[in-house]
Amino acid sequence: MSSSQFARFVGGDVGDWAIERTAPVRGDGLPPAARLSIVEARGREEPLGVRWALSGVAGHLRYVNAAERAILGARQEGLGRREATRAALIPIRKTAAWWDLAQDERRYIFEERSRHIRIGLEYLPSIARRLYHCRDLGEAFDFLTWFEYAPQHAAAFEELVGRLRETEEWSYTEREVDIRLRRLDPAEARED
Amino acid sequence: MSSSQFARFVGGDVGDWAIERTAPVRGDGLPPAARLSIVEARGREEPLGVRWALSGVAGHLRYVNAAERAILGARQEGLGRREATRAALIPIRKTAAWWDLAQDERRYIFEERSRHIRIGLEYLPSIARRLYHCRDLGEAFDFLTWFEYAPQHAAAFEELVGRLRETEEWSYTEREVDIRLRRLDPAEARED
């Protein structure tokens, strides 16, 4: 995608997604909140009852090469599919040691050793994802990954995150929180 | 560098650098201003008489590989050398076509075809530089490069920017402004 897509994920009292679980995986967690709203513009007023807010930008590819992009493009599906009523928001901060590496060293650990892209490919098109970068924004995390899937793929999703957390790349994770969500139907969403 | 270094470059009536020239190279320019101040913290109040303000983050390496980093590290000198009283601030925005490329395609154009790193190496240690990223910040530019050099290296600096503007990489530049500066001595800087 050539244009940068800003998004602010706000945990609070309102929003189209119910937060079912907020678990610290490494380092500090986040305060519990009932709902998540996603605001796709900078500088907007915060929704009511904000417990936490995480911003990021989905922009250009940082590690994916042209051949991988072609395979990903052929297999992946977009966000917002009607049946994809389950989601996960996983904010991650990596260590200083990771950011001290040169680009080729990070790519080598990311894919040649940890097979991050190839593992993700095995779960396409069931599990759709979008990566948001936030390191340059001065946020507490470096990335936010948003995943969407249908309830029947929940076990596959657990397997995917489990495999990624066993990789060498994951050893550079300094802080991670795992937030699981369920999309509310319009009637539920109005019941505030 | 493992930590991200935020900076806001503010063109206005105050600051330690006199702006000697502000020239559009491609696309829209910037309004003229007399002085430049550099604010190294987010969310600070703006200095007086602001004409323009450009923020960026100097963070991890985006294209440089480990071997190149070692050579750069051995040859380059830091900013703030006493004799380096000349500077250039060059904000650049690249085209959508650039950002649509995968990482390996951008690296290939950047270095294997355009020799961006190797050209810069020829001018070390005379010309010190720091690159700030601003694309994720929602700014009008994608990068800001800050160069510092002594007056006797001004001709070498002209040659460097001329060579970089002849590369294939440069054809992906959509907007560029070239701002030239002179560091004021403390007595001059107080004469506001």
End-to-end span of chain A in angstroms?
A: 35 Å
Q: Major β-sheet of chain A, in short?
A: 8 strands, antiparallel
- Average pLDDT score of chain A: 94
The stretches of 5 or more residues of chain A where confidence is low (pLDDT under 50) are none
SSE topology string of chain A: EEEEHEHHHEEHEH
The helix content of chain A is 25-40%
Estimated structural class of chain A:
alpha+beta
- How many beta strands in the DSSP annotation of chain A? 8
Strand order in the sheet with the most strands of chain A: 4-1-3-2-8-5-7-6
Biggest interface: chains and residue counts?
Answer: A-B, 33 and 33 residues
Helix count from the secondary structure assignment of chain A: 6
* Radius of gyration of chain A, in angstroms, nearest whole number: 16 Å
Which range does the strand content of chain A fall in? 25-35%
| Quaternary structure classification | homodimer
Shape of chain A: globular
Report on the structure:
The structure is a homodimer of 192-residue chains. Chain A has 192 residues and is of the alpha+beta class. Chain A contains six helices and eight strands; from the N terminus they run ββββαβαααββαβα. The first copy, chain A, has an eight-stranded antiparallel sheet. In chain A, strand 2 and strand 3 form a beta hairpin. Chains A and B meet through helix 1, helix 2 and helix 3 of A and helix 1, helix 2 and helix 3 of B.
